[in-house]
């Protein structure tokens, strides 16, 4: 299939047999998606919904074709599971290969409390009642991963804002560059790097994940979603040899320094404390101050709380500091620190708490987060699930639900659903028949193969900001 996606095969194998498992006379199946619970340990109020639009754009642009059906028939026959070829040929002949479903979803960038519907799917052709649940594999993947990354990133921004309010006089916009995405190399695939990196860019504007920039341009009309600066890695520094360490640092300043410019230099290849105190702080001090830009020192090993504390203290001794109106120290603007090793939401809080104890403002530091941002999440982080909640059989709608005695947390919702804004309770899920006209926050985004809503990244960022 063009675009690299055949929706017939983007599925769990057992879905292929489900058409024959519904009650006779089934006409419509309505299912919903939710993040059931916070298992992250971050004590979050909800999940920041993001990432459905790229899948829907792909489905709208590339209807199912004859070749897709032929390939699926051949594969499933060899695989040992039944294949409803007649149903897919009906979709091809009756709908031109466009999927006869309606998807309603909350606007991307919305913070939705856990255990609330974020999307709802129902077939629009009664002959395709089996299609709703068939799409679960694709839809769950499209939502759980980018939404989880966006939520973790949002959680970090909330932590950063807490310490910004406590220690900083700087403009709040500076928070947009306090967490940098270092996760591309640790992602499970290029697609994961693109979608996860893009999810991070809902909250921040610093990234080294180039594929995320391409995804933002392609799927969210954002010509440049994030920014970076020249930076050294250990290979470029250690290629000068231990005796040439100071020359490697000097070269970085000569190549990339200048008025208004930032350059990041990893400084722990041998002894980060010696590098800060003696190489940066003495031998290259004049060059750092004279270049008119900012040297960003990057420690990359050791206990991050203790190492950052010592590096800030040594940098302050070497380059000086001032106190802001809140009484916290800010390094000479020629020098800043970025911590990219061992960074996760808990270590960020611990580092910032230690900085407060030491009297340093958040202005002095930025963070780079890799695996903990893009890779150390899974579907269970927020217990994502898609469940059928209503079916129409022989003209009558009836509730569908599960209620296992062994795990109350896996009970599912009943009926056709809506998401409403309650003045007292915030967002909450209600039955569709109990929702006043025009108040359902689940808006139609896809119907019969057509994309109905296309948000820009700017719109998503706006919602996420005001949902803090």
UniProtKB/TrEMBL annotation:
Belongs to the NAPRTase family. GO terms for molecular function: nicotinamide phosphoribosyltransferase activity. NCBIfam families: PRK09198.1 (NF006629). It is an enzyme of class 2 (transferase). Residues 177-447 form the Nicotinate/nicotinamide phosphoribosyltransferase domain. Pathway: Cofactor biosynthesis; NAD(+) biosynthesis; nicotinamide D-ribonucleotide from 5-phospho-alpha-D-ribose 1-diphosphate and nicotinamide: step 1/1. Beta-nicotinamide D-ribonucleotide binds at residues 208, 298-300, 340-341, 371, 379. Keywords: Glycosyltransferase, Pyridine nucleotide biosynthesis, Transferase. It catalyses: beta-nicotinamide D-ribonucleotide + diphosphate = 5-phospho-alpha-D-ribose 1-diphosphate + nicotinamide + H(+). It comes from Paramagnetospirillum magneticum (strain ATCC 700264 / AMB-1). Diphosphate binds at residues 185, 234, 298. PANTHER family: NICOTINAMIDE PHOSPHORIBOSYLTRANSFERASE (PTHR43816:SF1). Residues 8-103 form the Nicotinamide phosphoribosyltransferase N-terminal domain. One of its GO terms (biological process) is NAD+ biosynthetic process. Its EC number is 2.4.2.12. This is Nicotinamide phosphoribosyltransferase.
